[in-house]
């Protein structure tokens, strides 16, 4: 059988996010975000943990950039903390906050690593949440102002910009499942949040274009959704889920229209009251790339709604429930390992949305037990297998015609895994949370060798 190899031009990196690694939550003039509030609310995050200290990357960024340089990556994806730049989410910029990202970017460039900047990875300033947060249209305009500040400061050195990370999570895990900040269970307001996130994206694109900041994209987490059986009911459940997870974002961004099955998915909750004339034009501006995060597929079956009264349902109560995958390994997140789904998802998106911009895989990785041996080394064979098999699947997708230009491992470091706290470890580098020491795992060395071989082919094949 023909096994395709990755094109020599493919770029490689690792990814992190501000709240998950920075710590220094009350230093440098940073204001509180909705995640600070959420972590302080009893019962929300495992063991009452928070990002107060995290990996202390705010102070140890130079050591982390040295790890990246030694790893040999082309790119590093990080996010800017909005409340570090604007402690209250509006008004004057905080010079100390901007100075931190200035130092980080310069250190990366000095090490020959290209910074890829995400403007929003879930840490909304609490002051904006107090005024309604993503449920209100105002927040999209505030996001435009924040974008302008960051673009004016870093636009001369950062050439790839990601407006939002996984708006699905901000809108629906935050306002309907309730497992992310702000942690509510709502219906129409969650759908309004989804719309305002899209509007914030479009508003940021305008600002980035005006600042001539470089390449602009958005990171989505499209799910590969499979019906549990071939029954009509299960397939209809998957189509509702496809709208909730994927089409809500892809359709307005890349087809200029809202999904045509919103009523089947949400009934009267999707009342469109939050939409205005002209919004689709703002949302659907051309992008230079699409970021895709992929971890695992989801299998679904038709199921009764949790809430019988349609008017009282949350936006994720769509009459579909997850079914377990049999016969495959599961990571410590409980996620099934199905590399084939990565290939299928990319090919499927490519066929459904002709004219999609080039793709960057902005996150892929796995959480593993990672117990260090007596010498303190972590032999994370399962993570190496996961990454190798997903890169093979990526090579097949590219071979099938999908235009993928880059790939980032989530994550460089073990870090604060949101509601799961520090117990779930995604890093190529182990973090000892008592000493904050960094210890590269076997997967770090494996990725380094992979990158070396890739660079060699790049030189050989031009
Ligand atoms: C990404 O999200 C994030 O961008 C990153 O910050 C994170 O650390 C990483 O992956 C690993 O988790 O509450 O039942 O609705 C991953 C995709 C999709 C995983 C939504 C959690 C919520 C499940 N996420 N999902 S539920």
UniProtKB/TrEMBL annotation:
Segments passing through the bilayer: none
Domain of life assignment: Bacteria
EC number(s) stated in the UniProt entry for this protein: 3.2.1.21
InterPro entries (UniProt xref): GH, Glyco_hydro_1, Glyco_hydro_1_beta-glucosidase
SUPFAM superfamilies in the record: (Trans)glycosidases
Single Gene Ontology MF annotation: beta-glucosidase activity
Catalytic activity line of the entry: Hydrolysis of terminal, non-reducing beta-D-glucosyl residues with release of beta-D-glucose
Record keywords, A-Z: Carbohydrate metabolism, Cellulose degradation, Glycosidase, Hydrolase, Polysaccharide degradation
Gene3D superfamilies: Glycosidases
Family statement: Belongs to the glycosyl hydrolase 1 family.
Record's protein name: Beta-glucosidase
Species annotation: Nocardiopsis exhalans
């Amino acid at each position: 059988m023909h096994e395709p190899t990755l094109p020599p031009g493919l770029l490689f990196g690792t990814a992190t996010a501000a709240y998950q690694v920075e710590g220094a939550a009350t230093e440098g003039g940073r204001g509180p975000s909705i995640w600070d509030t959420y972590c302080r609310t009893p019962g929300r995050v495992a063991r009452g943990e928070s990002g107060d200290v995290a990996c202390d990357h705010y102070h140890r960024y130079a050591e982390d950039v040295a790890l990246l340089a030694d790893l040999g990556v082309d790119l590093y994806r990080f996010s800017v903390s909005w409340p570090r730049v604007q402690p209250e989410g509006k008004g004057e910029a905080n010079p100390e906050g901007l100075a931190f990202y200035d130092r980080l970017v310069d250190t990366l460039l000095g090490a020959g690593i290209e910074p890829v900047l995400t403007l929003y990875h879930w840490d909304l300033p609490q002051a904006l949440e107090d005024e309604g947060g993503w449920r209100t249209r105002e927040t999209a305009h505030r996001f435009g102002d924040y974008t302008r500040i960051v673009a004016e400061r870093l636009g001369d050195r950062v050439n790839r910009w990601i407006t939002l990370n996984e708006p699905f999570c901000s809108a629906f895990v935050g306002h309907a499942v309730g497992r992310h900040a702000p942690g509510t269970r709502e219906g129409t307001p969650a759908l309004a949040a989804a719309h305002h996130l899209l509007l914030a994206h479009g508003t940021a694109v305008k600002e980035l274009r005006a600042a001539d900041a470089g390449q602009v994209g958005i990171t989505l987490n499209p799910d590969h959704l499979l019906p549990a059986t071939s029954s009509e009911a299960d397939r209809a459940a998957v189509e509702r889920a496809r709208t909730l997870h994927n089409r809500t974002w892809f359709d307005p961004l890349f087809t200029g229209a809202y999904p045509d099955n919103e009523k089947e998915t949400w009934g009267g909750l999707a009342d469109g009251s939050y939409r205005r004339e002209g919004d689709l034009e703002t949302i659907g501006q051309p992008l230079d790339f699409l970021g895709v995060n992929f971890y695992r597929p989801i299998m679904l079956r038709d199921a009764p709604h949790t809430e019988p009264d349609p008017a009282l349902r949350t936006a994720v109560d769509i009459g579909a429930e997850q079914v377990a995958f049999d016969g495959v390994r599961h990571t410590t997140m409980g996620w099934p390992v199905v590399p084939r789904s990565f290939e299928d998802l990319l090919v499927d998106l490519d066929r459904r949305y002709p004219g999609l911009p080039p793709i960057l895989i902005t996150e892929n990785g796995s959480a593993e037990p990672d117990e260090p041996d007596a010498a303190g080394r972590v032999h994370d064979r399962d993570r190496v297998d996961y990454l190798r098999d997903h890169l093979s699947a990526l090579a097949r997708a590219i071979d099938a015609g999908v235009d993928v230009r880059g790939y980032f491992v989530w994550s460089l470091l073990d870090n604060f895994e949101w509601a799961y706290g520090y117990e779930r470890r995604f890093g190529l580098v182990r973090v000892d949370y008592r000493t904050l020491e960094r210890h590269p795992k076997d997967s770090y060395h494996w990725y380094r060798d992979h990158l070396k071989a890739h660079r060699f082919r790049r030189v050989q094949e031009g």
